[in-house]
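To the team - nicotinamide-adenine-dinucleotide complex, inputs and output below.
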Amino acid sequence: MNRLEAKTAVVTGAGTQGAGIGNGKACAIVYAREGAKVLAVDIDFEAAQETARLIRSEGGVCEAFAADVSKSADCQNAIEACVEKFGRVDVLHNNVGITNSGNPVEYGEDDWDRMMNINVKSMFLTAKHALPYMERQGSGSIVNIGSINGVRAIPFPKTAYAASKAAVIGLSREIAIQYAAKGIRCNVVLVGLVRTPIVENNNVKLYGGNIEEMWRMRDRMSPTGKQGEAWDVAHACLFLASDDSKYVNGVVLPVDGGLINMVKL
Ligand SMILES: NC(=O)c1ccc[n+]([C@@H]2O[C@H](COP(=O)([O-])OP(=O)(O)OC[C@H]3O[C@@H](n4cnc5c(N)ncnc54)[C@H](O)[C@@H]3O)[C@@H](O)[C@H]2O)c1
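Output:
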């Protein structure tokens, strides 16, 4: 308990698209339970407010903030809001990520740019605005949410998504090394098959259109026989966000039940 006591956290994509608990919301809740003051950032202000309400109902501290993290000014405003409200920025947790499918021929150029802007440029922009504060503090932990699709092909044509998630790893590695001597760490969590509303909303067509069958298929695809939950992602992120991992920097941590090690014949 209290692994983030006296710390603050900016969590992007802290709402959830749809009913239930997504990865960003779970991370915001777990950080607050561990003592962090959380700025819950989302383009959907109501979704961010819902996360803030949940955290406050448990006695935690959370403020909702509306921002489109693909825009530099919004990222700057979010980081400044965290400093104004809570005094510092200890944890920057970049969860925002969208997903869709298509091979390079069918995938639109505008869609490609949008995917890159939302999934990768956003992480560059939030870091750009948070790093000067972290440097002044002499400490900070950045947790970027990747995907196993950033290092492995999956059975669907995820051209732009896979490229964006691979880029998240390169960006994070650069930050990790460039800022290590300044007390700032940057790590990536590779999310595997996790049962969250974003999957229900975006992936069901890829699995044939039946939601329950999709969940069964994803359970079967997992080495453990079960998909993960958003809480599994959140607890791994908590380790990376907190000082428990103070000598862990530039790692790419799969949270996938071992899926990444499997070879499908
Ligand atoms: N669930 C899985 O199986 C799985 C697998 C691999 C990776 N992931 C990763 O997990 C992350 C998403 O997790 P989630 O469950 O929280 O998803 P989610 O879609 O429920 O929540 C993400 C939040 O981001 C917000 N958002 C979208 N675009 C934004 C923008 N431009 N600016 C600010 N906010 C924006 C949405 O409004 C939403 O509330 C993504 O990075 C995704 O790639 C998930």
